[in-house]
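Exercise (ungraded).
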Amino acid sequence: MTQHPLRDDRGVGLVETLIAFTLLAVVLTAMVGVLIQQQRFYLIASDAANTMGTLRRFEEVVTPELLPLNPAAGDVVYADADSVKARVFRGVYWVCDKRMLADAEITVRSLTGGRAIAADSALVYSNGTRATIADDHWKRVEVTSVSSDVCPDSSQGWTAVVPSLNASLAEVPLGAPVRAYQMASYWLTTQNDSWYMKSDALGGSPTVVSGPLAPEDSTGSSILSLRYTDRFGKTTATLTEIHKIEIDVSALGMVPTTRGGVPMNKNRALAVKLRNAGQ
Amino acid sequence: MKNSSPLFCGCLKSQSGFGLPSTIIMIVIFVIVGVAGLAMARQELRTQARATSREIAFYAAEAGLAKGFQNWNRPGGVEVVGTSWTIDQGALPGGSSYRVGATRLDAGAVHAMFALRSQGTAANGQTQVANLLVATVPLDGLFKGALQTKDSVDLAGTARVNGFDHIPTSWNGAYCSALDDHKAGIVMADTSMFEEVGAATHDGVPPLLEDTDTAGFFDFGDITFAELAAQADVTLPPGQIVDNGTNLGPSLNGDGTCDTSDQWNWGDPLNPSQPCSNWFPIIHATGDLSLQANLQGQGLLLVEGDLRAAGGFEFYGPVIVKGSLIAEGGFKFFGGVKAQETDLGAGNSVLFYSNCVLQRALSHTSASRPRVLSERPWFQAR
């Protein structure tokens, strides 16, 4: 008969138990440390991605709004270092039909993707009174109502009532472009002790466009800096001379990068050359 | 003898330690965290790459707009509102590309309006679209007669100035089939400065018309003489003489297409089916010019000084002479002529008004290139 030497002859002593527990404690401590470290790494990396996302959202929302502006034609009505108020465009259309009823009516179709023209404000291209391109201009009109309609060629259109054209409908040729627009502001503001870019561009109450942005540093200039330059690259405070808008924006992370440290601060510099501001 | 050592008795086999499981657990955790980190980094890289591609596609679209404007063409049949056609497409450095086309917006009562649409595509397939609103300037009504002058007109010999609309024989049916409205024979700022002797004739509706409005006399509506001259395809020095020794005539590239880089290729007005029949260069003489050969040309002729013609030279297209048009022998101009003053006192010089010639010439030269609409021509379709 075979005997098992350890099972039968020797028990587990106190020393072995202590050694085992010590080893277990060391291994578990190491594992927990690694896990915590990895979690921190994950959180920081995730935070970095979110922070970069904040900057991207800022760029994706603000840049297309600024690109079509023509400050010389009055599209920028207010501008300072951390806010701007401008005529932001909401679709381009062209006139496929027009008629004079109680008020002037134009039927338009979209050049930018099928969205109905809003009952708000618009710029309508006018040939002027002379047979030359020199006196052509964009006429600012109020669209008082809009209804779904079709153009003479049966394509989808919308009929807009524009009393502002009652006296000058003849100057608007069939085919004239129409730019729907609204006045909108983008500004920096605080919410829950953090900085955000807000806008009223969507109508109703202001909404957050991007954030949280980095808090002010001692100079108060690190969050968002809008710099307006003229065609020669010089900083200008004259709205009609604005040719390019240089934007420096910093986004703030939520997770401290070191124990007891501060969250990361990512920066993005943009230069938006206003496409309709001429050469 | 039985070996009782644990190494040999197999007693350690049954002991279950935690080294291997804990190692495996740790490796699994590392792998999960590592994969998560890599996935996140990859996602971030992708997002960044998309943003970069979007930017590249945007600039490709912008380049396409510039190309479309530069290579503007307007094929026949685009008079219908809503008609679209492709102007240009091509590759750009870095693997991006553009495709630019135009859509007719209006019926062109005053000037024809178009929307240029350029789609830029980055190397990874991401696209962006930029648009430009343009209009061609009105070119109708620039010539009120076969000959317009600010100062004197002297006709002698067998000179003929005819304002009845005329279609050149070789063009009849090929380009134009119906006559347009007839114009005046001679339009002058002061008809008291007109003199006609011998067998010279002038005809039109009316034969002689006084028009004191000479503002912008040498301009083409919204396009000035200087702007047109700046777009010249051929620039000639002052005092240039074109005679039978000049190698003037249509020339072809190796592939059979019209060689528009040849400064002595002034199109092929007599052969409508030939490759150079649609080549209408803007010819800018920076001083006096003398056409003394039995040769032909077409296009838009701008002369800063005097223009002397003889030898049976034929030209098809608008002729603008800031100095004097002087006949030194026989020649034929089809289209319309504007000059400071005119002396057709020698040879069998003929000026025929031709709406067909004017329209073809103006629509084929860069004079017909559109201008961007004022103030807000650019927009982006999202």
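Further reading is listed at the end of the chapter. For now, observe: Chain A has a mean pLDDT of 85. The first strand of chain A starts at residue 76 and ends at 80.
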